[in-house]
Amino acid sequence: MQRRDFLRYSLFSAALLFPLSNFARFQKSMQPKIVICGGGYAGLSVAHYLKELNNYLDITIIEKNRRFVSCPFSNAYLGEVQDITLSSLTFSYKDAIKKNKCRFINEEIYEINRDKKEVYTKYQNISYDILIMAVGIDYNYEALFNNEKTIKEVMSKAPAGLKPPFEHEQLKGMIETFTKGNFIITVPNGSYKCPPAPYERACMIAHYFQTHGIEGKVIILDPREQPAAKPKQFLEVFNTLYKNTIEYHGLTNLKDINFKIKEVYVESFDKKNFDYVDKTVPFEQANIIPPNKANELIKQAKLELNDHGFAKLKPPTFQSSIDDDVYILGDAQGEYPFPKSAQMANSCALNVANEIVSRLYNLPYSLKENMPGNICYSLVSDTKAVSIMHTYTYDKKPTVSSFVSAIDEGTALSAKNWYEGLTAELFK
User: Which residues does the UniProt record annotate as the domain Sulfide dehydrogenase [flavocytochrome c] flavoprotein chain central (predicted)?
Assistant: First the structure.
């Protein structure tokens, strides 16, 4: 099966049945303005698919970063595998905008007024008819620490590494200057960006240690009993390829951290006494990944959030639960049990594009009959990877079926082809 072929079955083509002349007349009479907040995989993908469905749409992307830097394959960059560099992870927004003929505003959004249907940056106000929020995640450090000083120290000394590029560059420096001791990675509770990321990162750092003869250990502190993604496969890799380099500590909750004496304080489940006990773990470097929540712009726009801080939608759509003219796409949504991955963002972008074009033509479109799909690759060494594929059906709610690949060189090659294919689709 070729990359993402299994996702293409969900492409809704009813709008394409209209003659192009009808398309043009419709657009001249309506001229809907579509504003996309965020130029990550979700934002660029929905712009791309909207233009594929209707080249006449008036689309504006607002993005604060000057260049696109990919999170997928960033762990390979940390581990020095597959010839991945920061340069190979970086793309020009000019290429995406030129390809899809969209407006691009390279400014930071500081306010969204849904009553006036305007987005405000420092220098201009942008009006919209339809708003797509593809703004991603923020970190919820307050769920881990109640001390503002500790939070600031963690942010500066133990970056989470889920937001490129600066956090990844800092992690890279931490790895390259590491000489001995423990490199701690904490896994957040609940939903977070890219479920396999902490475990893949552990493998890549361990690979770096082994390649460079560093006498260090990667210690994973996980509140779950087993890894959140591909558990059997990751545990197998930890116990074979990295038997003397990775320690996996399940049922372990981070409680505090002391950078002065370099210790983390945890509570870990003692199976003998069937209770949690307090422990300390020394460290040399730490990658503290806090719980995630929707980007602060979702809250600022006064859109409804669930108890975990992610945006609520109106099932079975991607519309906000309280505003039909606002669509929420990518990692910020909390309505559906979809992995917060680049491929899922791309697949859901196809749904959102079809939802919007169908709406403009007053045609039916339902997520129930057009479920997205996902595939997620994780490198475990310089030559091998493992993948998981998710397919969904929708009855009263989405249900998932999954298939996990073998850990082999063929999957690593597929991972590289997937990455090159997705970025080519958006930028080339």
Answer: 172-270
pTM of the complete model: 0.92
Whats the size of the chain, residue-wise?
Answer: 428
**Model confidence pLDDT, tens digit, residues 83-128:** 899 999 999 999 999 999 999 999 999 999 999 999 999 999 999 9
Q: Give residue for tokens 């090159």.
A: 420
Beta bridge partners of 377: 387
Pair of tokens at residue 97: 């905008």
Query: Tokens in use for 388?
Result: 């998981």
- Same fold yes or no, 5-136+295-369 and 142-288: yes
CA 3 to chain CA mean position, Å: 19
CATH of 142-288, one of 3.10.20.70, 3.40.50.1820, 3.50.50.60, 3.20.20.70: 3.50.50.60
**Whole-number Å distance between alpha carbons of 322 and 350:** 22
| End-to-end Cα, the chain, rounded Å | 23
Task: Specify whether the CB–CB gap between 229 and 195 falls below 8 A.
Answer: yes
Q: What is the DSSP code string of 361-399?
A: TT----GGGS--EEEEEEE-SSS-EEEEEEEEEESSSEE
What value does the mean pLDDT of the chain take? 92
From the candidate CATH numbers 3.50.50.60, 2.30.30.140, 3.40.50.720, 3.30.720.120, the one assigned to the domain spanning 5-136+295-369: 3.50.50.60
273's tokens: 């006494």
The amino acid occupying position 358 is: S
Whether residue 232 contacts residue 248, with contact meaning beta carbons closer than 8 Å, is answered with no
The residue extents of the domains of the chain are 5-136+295-369, 142-288
What pairs with residue 398 in β-bridges?
Answer: 394
- Distance CA(392)–CA(71), nearest Å, equals 24
What tokens does 252 get?
Answer: 């372990």
Q: Whose CA is closest to 375, among 384, 366, 386, 367?
A: 386
